[in-house]
Amino acid sequence: MARKKLFPMKKYTLDEFQEKLDLPQRTPTFFKHHVYILPVTIFVVGIFALLIALVAFNSQTVGPSDSRIVNVYVDGKQQVVPTRAETVGAVIKTLPLDITKQDIVEPAQDTPITDTDFNINVYKARNVTIVDNGHKTTVNSAEQDPRALVQKAGDNVYPEDTVTKATVVDPVAEGVVGDKIVINRATPLNLNIYGTPVVLRTHAATLKDVLKEKNVQIAPDDTVQPSLDTPITPNMQAFIVRVGHQVTSVEEAIAPPVQYVDTPSLNKGTLQVQSAGAPGKKLVTYELELQNGKEVSRKVIQEVIATEPVTKVVLRGTKVEAALVLGGDKTDVLLAAGVSADQAPYADFVIAHESGWRLGARNASGCLGLGQACPGSKLINACPNYGTDAICQIQFFSGYANKYGGWRGAYNFWIVNHWW
User: Is residue 180 within 8 Å of 165, Cβ to Cβ?
Assistant: First the structure.
């Protein structure tokens, strides 16, 4: 006989059971049936917040107020390095550069970083074969100037010697490792002018050619030994004698000439000696007037260059970006880029409101530069070094301003629309 159930049981779901007991449901019905909606919602909200932040900060990484932009050129190739380092050496240590004693770092590694747009040049040492009258020497050097490289390698070269970089066609056949530098030595000649000896160095073929090259004047009553058509041989002796006149020769120094080379790697107004140069020597011959055996006057009858002076090379900075980072007057920058003085205030206003005078300013839409070119590729194509070349950028945006009739028209349009 079957047992009668005294208390028939009804099956309840978890939610129905919680409702009967008047308990709160642990999982809302909507999210129980849509288990992925909560994490997806959080992800979407996070992305949206990130986009807002990028727009608010103009797509720029917000860094400390003392952060600087340093342009490091390694054998001419540029790297832009944001840094808080205080010296050149500290910046170099942050880069994957293995600096050796043979490498050159300019300026020196203990130089303080003073600008927010600072330039550092690094020249890596490489193998160079020096060919000197058939004798070959291989050195490891970072020097860029052939003459300076040879001198630092220990070879003494005279101003009259030619030192040139030569093209390597077949390294194996030529027995050359790395670059090739050839020294063509001048021939030394011992010339005695009116009793005063002087050593000349020349590439001339005959004594006559040497005297012409050195501007040695021969008077009709002068005697020259050996004859003028004598071929030049190393350390040969030659004499010029004047009879019947009192003459004397004095060796005097020749100041080295100075050559200025404009470079955008230095700030405007900055001078940097690239090559110190060297003074030359000249032999000045005087004809003396004597009275009672005493000299009363003298007259220069000729000057002979014994040693050519070596030109002093000075780099002269043309970069005007320093005015930007110092927060100074931007007029110099605009004028240097060809903006007229009457248009400069309007250009200054537009650029300041578009980029805050930041060369590398980029917004979320990809607009780039001082005037925010859209797309940024247009500015990059026009100014490959846009990150350091304010002049090129301003010239580029001046061309764009012409669509408004110039910077004044661009300013008027910007005032109304807050863009241009």
Answer: yes
The pairing of strands 104-106 and 117-123 is antiparallel
Strands (E), 179-328: 179-184, 187-193, 196-202, 222-225, 236-242, 247-254, 258-267, 271-275, 280-291, 294-307, 312-319
User: Is the bond preceding 226 in cis, omega lying within 30 degrees of 0?
Assistant: yes
pLDDT tens, position by position, 160-217: 999 999 999 999 999 999 999 999 999 999 998 888 888 999 999 999 999 999 988 8
The first and second tokens of residue 25, run together, are 């449901």
Angle (nearest 5°) at CA 274 between 102 and 332: 125
Residue 99, C-beta contacts closer than 8 angstroms, at least 6 positions apart: 92, 105, 122
* Residues 135, 141, 145: CA angle, nearest 5 degrees: 85
Element (H, E) at 411: helix 407-417
Q: For residues 186 and 173, give the distance between their C-alpha atoms in angstroms, rounded to a whole number.
A: 27
For 71, list phi and psi in degrees, rounded to 5.
-95, 110
Beta bridge partners of 131: 136, 182
